[in-house]
Amino acid sequence: MSLxxxxxxxxxxxxxxxxxxxxxPFGGANNPLRHLGAMGLYLLWIVVGTGxxxxxxxxxxxxxxxxxxxxxxxDLWYFGGILRSLHRYASDAFILVMVLHLIREWAYGxxxxxxxxxxxxxxxxxxxxxxxxxxGYWIVWDQVAQFSATATTELLDWLPIFSExxxxxxxxxxxxxxxxFTMLVFIHIGIPLLLILGLWAHVHRISLVDYLPSxxxxxxxxxALLLLALVRPALSDAPANLALTPAELRLDWFILFIHPxxxxxxxxxxxxxxxxxxxxxxxxxxxxxxxxxxxxxxDAANCSxxxxxxxxxxxxxxxxxPHPHRPGFKIAAVDPDLCASCGICAGSCPSSTPFRRQxxxxxxxxxxxxxxxxxxxxxxxxxxxxEGPSRIVIFGCDRxxxxxALAAPDTAVISLMCTGILPPSFVExxxxxxxDGVMLTGCRSGGCDFRLGDRWTAERMTGQREPRLRSKVPLxxxxxxxxxxxxxxxxxxxxQEFRTRIExxxxxxxxxxxxxxxxxxxx
Length: 523
Ligand code: HEM
What we know:
Cytochrome Bc1 Complex, Chain C, elongated, binds protoporphyrin IX containing FE
């Protein structure tokens, strides 16, 4: 194993533990670590909203800006001051969330193959975010602004782009004028616009994007930012004076960390570091990585053009094209670059039902490495071998808790590449074929490697999404357990509890398992 893989795996393990610890107080749907992209977008909207307010009330001139922002913070502290603080703290939180999001995607190995595009489009965003953040500090035109502007231009001077230290010259006393300020504001507003454009590109090949976190998470986040704004309002330093060198400054380490870093090293070191990290991020997807799995295959004769697979695909890899043999009909078409090989499409296909009498079960869209026909065969073999008073079939997600360890004479375990590949009709087929109960395991809420597998499974089984589990299937005979790789014990306990319930022969119209009493998809 390479050094990179071992560092990545260790980071993955640590991150997963932390995320799971956060699940306890927050729950999967409200766990910020499981929704970092959405948190980033939410914070960005706060930054944009508060920024627009500041833009309209500030006197954007070299002589007026300092006093006008001071007026907001002091005289209008209860409104303008709070919005200013929100602008600052949401920016810091945005950077924190972006860095965590990057580390998480890397640690989970989500930077190559079908995720190549999301990763590559993410890298330039980091530069845009920092350029905008640093520029934002200059607008205040206090001593922090002066220090940051001088330090940045010194850093820029090191690059061989200016024939003379031009960048530095314009920071001489009297060299700062209103035109410079207008340019600054233009940059500080223009770059976020580019950022929004970049973010659109970043997510546009993902379907059903997690655009916003849950309501509770949004309320909690804004409440925390407001509290911070009240307890520690964002204030300006002393006004800038280019004739003096700023002494003690309160630096924002999230955004301006680069200046102390330059102080303790050198511009050469900082640029080398920045370019090396950026190059590394760009190169990562091209490093050797596990061979791609076979992608979904459409069977023209069995595809009805219903477009359920197109709707359910988490990576927008399926489009609907004109059917080659049936005029006026559509057929699913898979984009090999985008297909995640998760099988969620096969689980959504109405033809994927084991009740069809075909000897070789053919469906509209299938996975070569785990066909629906193979799944039916495995289920039939498992049912034939089950013995005991309460026979249970477990369909276990390979990426969640290890269900294989639970195999026993009365418990058959069928592993799936993602729970989302399982059409609900298989549950009914198993129950009709002799199983007393069916247990379905998937990753924890918000933890599906393919984004939507746990959600679609829950919605299909609870009748909220096509293909639905038929309403006559006794829900008391079905147990959904969303458990991660570290949740082996939870899974074993859930199986024990399920078995006890089945053995007590609770009437099928008795109380439903807790999962089914919920209306949301979140476990
Ligand atoms: C600038 C701040 C960023 C924001 C606001 C942001 C936001 C998002 C959002 C909303 C998603 C979709 C999540 C979902 O629906 O499951 C996403 C996905 C993704 N982002 Fe970012 N992102 C940012 C920066 C980055 C950076 C810097 C990288 C890495 C270089 C990155 C890598 C990815 C990857 C690989 C995915 C795909 C995840 C998957 O396929 O499961 N993002 N991002």
